[in-house]
Amino acid sequence: MSARQLIQSLRLVALVEGLSWLFLIAAMIYRSQTGHHEPVAWSGRVHGGLFCLFALALFWTWLEAKWTVTFSALIGLSSLLPLGFVFADPFLKKKLAQSS
Fold it and tell me: Helices 38-65 and 69-78 meet at what angle, rounded to 10?
């Protein structure tokens, strides 16, 4: 896979993972109001899987695109924040434009 394709894939995975993070937060708020634990359990599993996929995609992109450790770490740290993907996406777009 080319660096360009990997960056595009990373952007998509980051978006889906970020949205799942927001859904997990909503499920936790729902649980605190209703006491139902199932939405948190399911959304937590989905988010955890997507987070692992994001980490693998980031690692693979880092290797293939030869990004600096600092840049890759900042992109990785953005996934720990709700809406962090919104802040990381412009930097990924810039890297995407540079890879063509």
Answer: 160
> Cα–chain-centroid distance for residue 6?
14
User: Taking 90 as the threshold, does the pLDDT of residue 82 lie above it?
Assistant: no
Q: What are phi and psi of 5, to 5 degrees?
A: -65, -40
Give the integer Cα–Cα distance in Å for 52 and 17. 9
Each domain of the chain, given as residue ranges in start order, spans 3-98
In this structure, are residues 8 and 97 in contact, taking their beta carbons and an 8 Å threshold? no
Whole-prediction pTM: 0.90
pLDDT in tens, 13-70: 999 999 999 999 999 999 999 999 999 999 999 999 999 999 999 999 999 999 999 9
- Write the burial class of residue 31 (CB in 10 Å: 0-12 exposed, 13-18 middle, 19+ buried): middle
Measured over all CA atoms, what is the biggest interatomic distance in the chain, rounded to whole angstroms? 50
* DSSP 8-state secondary structure symbol assigned to residue 50: H
